[in-house]
Amino acid sequence: MTKPIIFLQREFRDEFIEKIQILAPDYQIKTELTEDDLPSVEISVGWPKKFSERLLSSDQLKWVQSISAGVDYLPLNDFSKREVLLSNGSGIHALSISEHIIGVLLGYYRGLNESVKKQEQKVWAQESIHYDQLSGKNLLVVGTGHIGQQLSKSIHSLGVNVYGINTTGHPAEGFVETYSIKNMAKIVPEMDIVVGILPGTHETYHIFNSDIFGKMKKTGIFINVGRGDTVHTKELISALEEKQFAFAALDVFEEEPLPESNPLWTFDNVLITPHISGMTVDFQNKFMKIFLANLKSYLSDRELSVNQVELTRGY
User: Fold this and answer.
1) Mean pLDDT of the chain, nearest integer
2) Are residues 164 and 210 in the same domain?
3) Which domain, by its residues, includes 166?
């Protein structure tokens, strides 16, 4: 009888392969798949899109471990119908994304972004450089999960007042106060900084739109490190053109790579980064802590102990 397969979409160090094999001696571990392998794949680490239809037609597939935190690109409805378990990489990128956000804010408030541009022109522009103080600012984190909580913890020592938005307004560690997502438009006018860290779901699609942008402070900053489709791109462009708020730092987009024709490239009040906020030092070790814990619990009782995704909600 053919052994069931644990498929790894990306290569991991030998030390982790050995740990997987020790935990699951009755499984094959593969980093490449053939057509003949597909009916035997029981666990998939990552999701090979080119084999999606075949994997979903197999009764053998039981669990998908997403490498990323976001899972909106996966066939969640199909997983739900077939009772396929799903877990994600939530928490791995929390420190990296928090540092990215803090770097963006310091770059803007301390005039570093402008200084880089002036350096390229060999211009000494001390008197014209914009500067401000980060300490004392009100920052609204839209999405109070692992990343939002890490951001709150990391930025607290800089004197920033951190507020949160989540589905119900339930309290979350490290926030001055939290509010439900339905009340976001009422809270935004009081905030100096709005940071989007939302997953991509039906409920969050285009949640950052003209209504929100129009209520921001003229001096406000908008940062998005969540999912690109949480932002209505055309309405964001209009808001920036009309200077409804001062500055946007965007790491994710509805279309990636961002097309050269998109006017966001040309705006002086926009910082574009190419989806790098989540790039994480020692990623393999951090990811494997999640996967190995889940593998142990899965083999024991067919349950996942870390980061199981509720398929109907998408996170």
Assistant:
1) 97
2) yes
3) 94-272
